[in-house]
């Protein structure tokens, strides 16, 4: 996370100040480690934001026989939303005596789904203005088209748009058959 710029060292004069949360690792099924920032204490101070998000029911109602679909998984979408420097003091943790704070939106923050949805809404709106059928659900996007060539075009346009500002995890994205 440090090498990706998602976190930074807390300036020495600010160490021990601010809001510190517990940080630990859990093993994923893939034998990799998932970092966990326990934000339960901070959560008590955050206001719940109500918002509308695309559901599976919404998507199913818009599907027709013969539609072509592709999925896109944005890699660590929350790490693409910067935290204002004066708010980073609320997102601190310690590891091996070292003090860190998040520079970008941390995973598991109560307001993260609302923030991600609001940040990516203009992207979805822009793609829809271009007549692409997209269904964003946080960091997972579903694309729909009437034929394979339209789907390829939609996928290329969407990927190009995201690659201008984000990295995408293509290993979690569906690939289209050649042809």
TrEMBL record:
Its EC number is 3.1.26.4. It is an enzyme of class 3 (hydrolase). It comes from the Eukaryota. One of its GO terms (molecular function) is RNA-DNA hybrid ribonuclease activity. Transmembrane segments: none annotated. Residues 7-179 form the Reverse transcriptase domain. Belongs to the beta type-B retroviral polymerase family. HERV class-II K(HML-2) pol subfamily. This is ribonuclease H. It comes from Pleurodeles waltl (Iberian ribbed newt). The lineage of its organism: Eukaryota, Metazoa, Chordata, Craniata, Vertebrata.
């Amino acid at each position: 996370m440090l090498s990706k710029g998602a976190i930074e060292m807390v300036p020495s004069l600010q160490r021990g100040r601010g809001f510190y949360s517990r940080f630990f690792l859990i093993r994923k099924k893939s034998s990799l480690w998932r970092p966990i920032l326990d934000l339960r204490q901070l959560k008590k101070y955050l206001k719940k934001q109500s918002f509308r998000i695309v559901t599976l029911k919404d998507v199913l109602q818009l599907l027709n026989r013969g539609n072509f679909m592709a999925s896109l998984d944005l890699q660590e979408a929350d790490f693409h939303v910067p935290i204002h420097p004066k708010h980073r003091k609320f997102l601190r943790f310690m590891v091996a005596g070292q003090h860190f704070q998040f520079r970008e939106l941390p995973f598991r923050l109560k307001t993260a789904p609302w923030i991600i949805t609001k940040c990516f809404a203009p992207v979805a709106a822009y793609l829809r203005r271009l007549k692409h059928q997209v269904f964003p659900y946080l960091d997972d996007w579903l694309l729909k088209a009437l034929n394979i060539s339209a789907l390829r075009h939609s996928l290329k346009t969407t990927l190009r748009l995201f690659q201008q500002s984000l990295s995408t995890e293509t290993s979690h994205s569906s690939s289209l058959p050649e042809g």
